[in-house]
Design a protein that fits this description.
Layout lengths: L1 H24 L5 H13 L5 H12 L9 E2 L18 E3 L2 H38 L10 E4 L6 E3 L5 E5 L8 H16 L2 H14 L4 H24 L4 H15 L9 E2 L5 H10 L8 H42 L2 E6 L8 E4 L3 E7 L1 H9 L18 E6 L16 H12 L3 E3 L2 E2 L16
Parallel strand pairs: 2-8, 3-5
Antiparallel strand pairs: 1-11, 4-5, 4-6, 7-10, 8-9, 9-10, 11-12
Helix pairs in contact: 1-2, 1-10, 2-7, 3-10, 4-6, 5-7, 5-8, 6-7, 8-9, 11-12
Length: about 450
């Protein structure tokens, strides 16, 4: 789990670096385009790489569904279907790894809880403001006036409205008010509150990663600049718009207020006013340039996924092969299980591998990666008695976190042959060691 998380973090961080280089090529283009690029980089952190790694590893370890292990039993040669799946079997990490994981999870939960609590408090406060706000006779339908000391801002993600402080209405001229209101309504058109909440989700889940917070600042800067560009593009005078922002600053200074995430004074105000007064328009991107950018972004998003899955598959193959060779020659002991009622499990650590509280059929299903119903033959003595198999490994397993129960395949075949005199056939081929006599129909004793 930790390895998969680290892989996900470095790949997402690398992707952010690639996006940063692409953004540098589009500094003269629209801020809306750069905002979309930064948003893609942020949402990349929500891609579940660990699941894709698992799929890649499974793709590298195919199991022939026609290969059904068959016990040779003179009393019963027909299939014996069993409903219980092998998904109940699990690999249990050693105690020290479990303690470390518990500490890491508690630390993550503490940080995420603090951020989530602030997120919830802001959401509830915004709902209170919207509920207590009132409409204006000549204002747009999505504009509300509140008596609270807030900046002009947008509240709500799915039904957003513009909140205007009542004390500010008298201080702005008509042109200034229209420009400020156009800026906030542009946030609604762009669904900026929704994207801001998505970024907050990323920050909550990955609060420990500084790149996530750096992305948040980039998103705010480009979001506000995109709205400023839209206001100027709509024909509002830059001087009136800049004067309106300064008047909002004078109104809000030294006032205790609640600040919503998408508000009029977000971003670098000095830089924003400088650009507004300059009145420069962004260069057009062009259809071909936009298509190439989209293709490149998708390609860079897919390369880490494919690379991660391929590398993990190769690593799992190498670990599986090494563990299989070591376990095939390992010494083992079989005793009757003492954990009645508990679920079967596999414990792997640096000293030994233990198959705990498992029936013989479950051992075979586990080691071949199959359902119990695919393991044919035998009788009740394959399902009812439960055993503990202790395997003294000559060395540590390749990686406890990546330990694959299928590396037990040769060992389980040895246990069946040497301890229970049972032959195992796959596709009518007897698995080595082979040639021992078939058992009687009765239950074998451990």
């Amino acid at each position: 789990m930790i390895v998969a998380l680290l892989d996900h973090l470095w790949q997402s961080t690398l992707f952010c670096g690639v996006v940063w280089m692409i953004v540098q090529l589009f500094r003269s283009n629209s801020a809306a385009l750069r905002h979309r690029l930064w948003l893609i980089a942020s949402l990349k952190f929500l891609v579940p790489f660990a699941a894709l790694y698992g799929l890649g590893a499974l793709a590298g370890l195919p199991v022939d569904v026609g290969s059904q292990p068959l016990f040779v039993d003179e009393a019963l040669r027909a299939a014996v279907p069993v409903v219980s799946p092998t998904s109940s079997l699990r690999v249990v990490p050693p105690d020290d790894a479990a303690a470390f994981m518990f500490f890491m999870i508690c630390t993550w939960l503490a940080g995420a809880s603090v951020i989530a609590a602030g997120w919830l408090a802001a959401w509830r406060a915004a709902r209170v403001l919207v509920t207590g706000a009132r409409t204006l006779p000549d204002a747009p339908h999505d504009a509300r006036v509140t008596d609270a000391d807030v900046e002009p801002a947008v509240a709500g993600s799915f039904r957003p409205v513009v909140l205007l402080p009542a004390g500010l209405l008298e201080k702005l001229t008509g042109s200034q008010m229209r420009a400020v209101l156009a800026h906030e309504r542009e946030h609604i058109r762009r669904y900026d509150n929704l994207t801001a909440n998505l970024q907050r989700l990323v920050e909550t889940l990955f609060w420990f990663h500084p790149v996530v917070w750096w992305l948040g600042r980039r998103l705010i800067e480009e979001r506000e600049r995109a709205c400023d560009e839209a206001v100027l593009e709509a024909g509002h005078a830059g001087a009136d718009y800049a004067a309106g922002i300064l008047e909002v600053c004078r109104h809000c200074i030294d006032r205790p207020r609640f600040r919503l995430p998408v508000s009029a004074l977000s971003g670098n105000l000095t830089e924003r006013i400088r650009r507004i007064l300059a009145g420069a328009r962004p260069a057009a991107t062009g259809g071909a340039k936009a298509a190439a950018l989209l293709s490149g972004t998708l390609a860079f998003a897919g390369i880490p996924l494919i690379t991660g899955a391929t590398e993990d598959s190769l690593r799992r193959h190498a670990i599986l092969a090494a563990d299989s060779r070591m376990l095939d020659a390992a010494r083992f002991s079989v005793v009757a299980a003492g954990g009645a009622g508990s679920r079967p499990s596999v414990i792997a650590n640096s000293r030994e591998v233990i198959i705990r509280n498992s029936s013989l059929r479950e051992m075979v299903a586990l080691s071949f990666g199959m359902r119990l119903s695919q393991v044919q033959g035998g009788g009740e003595w394959l399902d009812i008695p439960r055993y503990d198999v202790h395997v003294a490994t000559p060395g540590p397993v390749g990686d406890v976190e990546y330990f694959d129960p299928q590396s037990l395949r040769g060992l389980v075949t040895r246990v069946l042959a040497e301890r229970f005199d049972v032959e195992l056939y796959v596709n009518q081929h007897c698995q080595s060691p082979c040639g021992r006599p078939a058992p009687a129909a009765g239950k074998p004793s451990p």
